[in-house]
């Protein structure tokens, strides 16, 4: 178990470094000052997520079957071999990649520059509080001498401090958008947890031979929806919207995020209605106290909520990626994408806190909403709660997005003029 958990934490650390950096590096391969490449960069985020979800769809269908029917050793071994191949392909392209440098400044991370600024503040404090020691009493009456020379090192420090303050302001102004996307992340967490638990109670036989579909495999409907809808969005919807809005990406990044949040809200409403129907079917079939007996209800009932979530991801997920890449200072693009990823990390913690708190309160009253026997639980109530929170979040987001001012730069000129 020690080795297993160490390996899981190694994966988490690796993903924390890999995901934001490789995506920012990929987007950097497009010249933001070139109009055609700027449009292509917007499409890059669409096709990046397309590739991710295509791989996820295959993984959920193939690996879930291998893990359930053959073994977990092979189930973990296949991704290991694929990652080794991916690393080899990445290294083969080393000589063809574009690298950008900021002229006239030292290439340092935000944290290194913050540390230098703090150290300089400490030194200036010590100088200002240090007593003036003069050994020669005659020097007390001498006029101070002024130098006409410019201290280049001190000037660089002043400029560096000003840049750090400006970069910090640009990052902090994104916080309201970050905060109003957390409930979307809470809803996102249900697609891989309670949705799967719901699916495990249904009749999952398909075909004449009665092939049993693994509950986790239903998550592939999210990825399949993205794979199908992404090309339609990029090749049909965006060019059509561009004609009317004049925005290079069809609609602004914040509009795209808001559209996905609305679809997520609809998905949670549909999930609540399906769960209410499932509970009714279980009661009518006399299965309220028989959790191991499949409810006589087809797994296809759950497909709409997965499809809606897939469509929501096409808008919100890709919109968030592009937004947090584009709206941070150029030196902090990896940090921007890390902020985007942190939405889902924090959202998962919020979801866990909600579930734990509600479980404790409802269990004390007799019946937990999240009972191990879902036929006696009330996931539908929880879905309605998440839907209500999503609606409130969407209202707050619309207000904040309406007052947000995009970062002004050459690459975003069309975006900013369209609002």
From TrEMBL:
GO cellular component, one term: membrane
Membrane topology: Multi-pass membrane protein
A GO molecular-function annotation: transmembrane transporter activity
Annotated signal peptide: 1-16
One Pfam family it belongs to: PTR2
Location(s), subcellular: Membrane
Domain of life, source organism: Eukaryota
Transmembrane segments: 46-66, 72-93, 174-196, 216-233, 254-274, 306-325, 337-358, 381-400
Keywords of the record: Membrane, Signal, Transmembrane, Transmembrane helix
Family as reported in the entry's similarity comment: Belongs to the major facilitator superfamily. Proton-dependent oligopeptide transporter (POT/PTR) (TC 2.A.17) family.
Protein name as it appears in the record: Major facilitator superfamily (MFS) profile domain-containing protein
Organism: Brachypodium distachyon
